[in-house]
């Protein structure tokens, strides 16, 4: 899959922009780290992810593996801990936007994937206030990261956030300069569709595919209309 710097993040990243709960977040002082690879949010412990991209949970018993595998696991462990620490810092920040801007280079696709795992766990555990705080914080972090991305990537992310057809139409009309038939936007969209189609175990696969195919249909119709207008 393409990286966040060259393509939109995965479905779980995009979903941060769609807040699903409305309860008030905890105060900033209630957020802290709770050991290695876990978060404590408002006195509620958010479980550590069982796996990050196939890597074993680092709280579990040691895994017997080859030297190269040990190196891979060690690197994954280090990145998971760094991502957890950054997420904790964002959660307790008085100004999330400024903190995200300070760490924008660390807001990688892998960071959002790890953070989304905490979000999924919070949802499964029924921690609605935790879910709200995580979604709000990660939405801000993603918005900061998006300012560093190509406009075509920002356009695709925005279209994925626009759940209503009229909102997508408005976004498309405001960005027609990126919709020529051979544009980077359509290359990006095609790669994204192919990538999601291959993710057979992704629980969001069908929902995201439906969104992407609708975006593909709507944007290509506009692109064809523009081409017909130019040919006249």
TrEMBL record:
User: Superkingdom of this entry's organism?
Assistant: Eukaryota
Please report the name of this protein according to its UniProt entry: Uncharacterized protein
Q: Which organism is it from?
A: Riccia fluitans
